[in-house]
């Protein structure tokens, strides 16, 4: 399986940092020039576009041969992604309008957008923990990079392109890692996981994971942003810039911790992981005005993706089930009624009298449904041959 990892470049001088920044600007200006040709002449296939713009962008933007090739491929990949999104399922009326507007003009790349590198223009020295990288100012050799010991081990299996990224004046390389994928084992039941806004994840074992704490953190950041935006001073704008993406990083770290805990529990007990299929929930669910920010900052898709890839690396099967009525159905007697859910936190069955935490009841229903799906033949069920 393929995963991505990130290392931070540590340019030794301002000259090296300026060379990296200038390289991104030149490559993305070249990408915009190629994108204009691809759109106006409808040349979105790589070989055709290459013949039309290669010599021009190489001369006009002072690019080497291989960087020019990577830039053209980046443009073609962007149009292929746009076409793939166009063919995707219904995004609703507003989504269709945005998609139509995107298709009516050329794709524009930011000047600091990521630039792909291959092994001809980027060389890794893992022993010295440095890279040699092409720039418009010449090849920079011995640029140190920082990463965790685990990431350094993973980089030994690196394959394909790496992307040069600049964020907040810092430079990163994002590499693709090819790691061995163990076979999926036959599970002895399933660990149901109920995803929610108040409680991010609740398992069928009764564990409630990191809800209130993260919601309070997000609320503090929303209040702070609103306060700073009202000031409209240069100092307030500097603080807003410094705080940008901090909340997203914190939420991603929390989701990593939760996903790791869930997969480790399932692996240790030889169970699979059962999740709800929540695709399109933001279009289906309506929320009051004071609840919209919490709904749309809910990173359930990210948590589900983290659980899926960590489970894949561990050989743990993952099954998605229909989420309908998981919060209204009793996990003991299967009686389903909307009045069973007394409030956000409490479930009381009107038939058998079972009382438990509502999210715990929902996660048990998810586990039961996953077991039934597996018995019927789940998509990622291991081969018995």
Automatic annotation (TrEMBL):
Keywords: DNA recombination, DNA-binding, Transposition. It holds the Pfam family Cas12f1-like_TNB. Residues 180-267 form the Probable transposase IS891/IS1136/IS1341 domain. InterPro entries: Cas12f1-like_TNB, RNA-guided_DNA_endo/Transpos, Transposase. It comes from the Bacteria. Residues 300-366 form the Cas12f1-like TNB domain. The keyword Membrane does not apply. In the C-terminal section; belongs to the transposase 35 family. In the N-terminal section; belongs to the transposase 2 family. NCBIfam families: guided_TnpB, IS200/IS605 family accessory protein TnpB-like domain. This is IS200/IS605 family element transposase accessory protein TnpB. It comes from Streptomyces bambusae. The lineage of its organism: Bacteria, Bacillati, Actinomycetota, Actinomycetes, Kitasatosporales. The gene is tnpB.
